[in-house]
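Appendix C: a fully annotated inverse folding record. The material below is reproduced so that readers can follow the format used throughout the book. The structure is listed first as tokens, followed by the designed sequence.
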């Protein structure tokens, strides 16, 4: 788990170091990458720490509506779990006096892979998310997100991302 978290952090920081300057008037427009960490709770008392790398593309419209697509890839500290990934379409609304906060929801597909004793299994299903994101200047943002995997497992995360 530590190796995955370290790798995801290194990738995120490398990507941020080459980021182009962001558009000041649209804090949630364009390509973004980041890292999030949290906790996964599932059925049958399956739970553990989770870490994800995330990235996507959003288009901020002039009426404060934001539409986009986001992918995640990560892991959780659960025996035999190799990885979890998801792809979600998102829609959000910009709020606040400074128009620097975003509430969003999304839906899509998620898949998990587990292996043990030379065997592996993959399972997939619906993914849904609810998120709040706050722009921190021109490039950075902080977010809190809740994700459901087929309405059987739930992941709560906090993260930081950079916009390009």
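Designed amino acids, in order:
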């Amino acid at each position: 788990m530590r190796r995955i978290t370290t790798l995801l952090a290194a990738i995120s920081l490398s990507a941020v170091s080459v980021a182009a300057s962001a558009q000041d008037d649209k804090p949630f427009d364009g390509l973004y990458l980041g890292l999030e960490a949290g906790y996964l709770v599932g059925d049958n008392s399956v739970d553990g720490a989770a870490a994800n790398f995330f990235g996507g593309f959003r288009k901020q419209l002039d009426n404060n509506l934001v539409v986009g697509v986001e992918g995640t890839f990560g892991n959780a500290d659960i025996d035999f779990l190799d990885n979890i990934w998801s792809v979600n379409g998102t829609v959000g609304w910009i709020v606040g006096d400074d128009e620097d906060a975003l509430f969003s929801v999304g839906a899509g597909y998620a898949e998990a892979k587990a292996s043990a004793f030379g065997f592996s299994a993959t399972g997939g299903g619906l993914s849904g998310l609810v998120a709040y994101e706050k722009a921190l200047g021109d490039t950075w943002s902080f977010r809190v997100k809740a994700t459901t995997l087929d309405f059987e497992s739930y992941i709560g995360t906090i993260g930081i991302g950079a916009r390009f």
